[in-house]
Amino acid sequence: MKTILIMRHGEAAPMQADDAARNLTQVGHLEAKKMGQWLANTQKPDALLVSPYVRAQQTANGVAESITFKYSETCADITPEGKPHVAADYLETLIQMHPECNSWLIVAHMPIVSYLVDQLCPGNMPIFNTGAVAVIHYNENTNRSEYININAPADL
């Protein structure tokens, strides 16, 4: 059994012409650090898949202050306009390729984070607050997933 952790980036600056270049706010940086500490204490992710957008990279860096990842990759399939079936297929392939990794953290954006949960666990499409993490248990032998819950920085 593996764990898949799907995280929305922390609070970002307002929309700009170049959405990919938006930075985290001070609150967003604090959300990333807080969730990094929570993840280190509870979920212990050892693999990271992160969107190339600046705010997702900054969130992953904040989380990484508390966690050392065995495997890390920037993935263009998990941007806001990404296709959840492509992202889920790629994630499942990576899980098979890296059996040493038991817990996978995906740092991405709305709406793909919600769609990705639904892709893995049909009928579950949570709305993510900034910095929130959905917890999913994944059986790599059957490719079946179970949605467990969602945790947000304000709830901790």
TrEMBL record:
InterPro entries (UniProt xref): His_Pase_superF_clade-1, His_PPase_superfam, Mito_Ser/Thr_phosphatase, SixA
One Pfam family matching this protein: His_Phos_1
Annotated SUPFAM superfamilies: Phosphoglycerate mutase-like
Keywords, sorted A to Z: Hydrolase
UniProt KW Lipoprotein keyword: no
Transmembrane segments: none
Protein name: Phosphohistidine phosphatase SixA
Phylogenetic placement of the source organism: Bacteria, Pseudomonadati, Pseudomonadota, Gammaproteobacteria, Alteromonadales
Gene name linked to the record: sixA
